[in-house]
Amino acid sequence: MQKQPKTPTDLLNKIAEILNNLRIDFFVSGGFAVSVWGKPRFTADIDLVIHLEEKNIDQLAGKLKSEFPDAYIDPLQMRDALKNNGEFNIIEPNIGMKIDFWIVYNKDYDKLRLRRSIKKDIGREVRFISPEDLIISKLQWMQKDNSSRHADDIKSILEISKVDNDYINEWVKKLGLEKEYKRI
Hints:
The protein is α+β, with helices and mostly antiparallel strands. It folds into two domains: about 1-130, Beta Polymerase, domain 2; about 130-184, no CATH class. It is built from nine helices and six strands; from the N terminus they run H-E-H-E-H-H-E-E-H-E-E-H-H-H-H.
């Protein structure tokens, strides 16, 4: 019987191992990434941005189901996410965590974010979104839902991490996020 993850970090490490073994590019974003680049905070899910192709879906679904037999995993949801540039998730009930897999679009900025991701050791080496791209991502979410949590996360990252302001300013302008960035 395989060893089941006991903590969210164990779960993330196991999923990273699966994705690496299948040669699926990814990085960690969301609350886990904020805890790496800013102040640690509670998060009820794990956000992964992945470069998924149709040919990998059955293999990924099978491997996830094999490693997490009690988890909810739906290959149809995975295909729909790929088709619509959306997201799919799995729910791991033994830890009580949801893992959101966000599909990388074929846009230049998404490819750049994958290349700029940074390895961090959290029990194994896992790729995390860069602090600059995390700030830009949080600005994009602010534009959509205007949540103060995103602004707090950005402030936390700016307090803790050294960032490339020129890069942030360039992409803020390109992505039309000036209004949100001024609020910070």
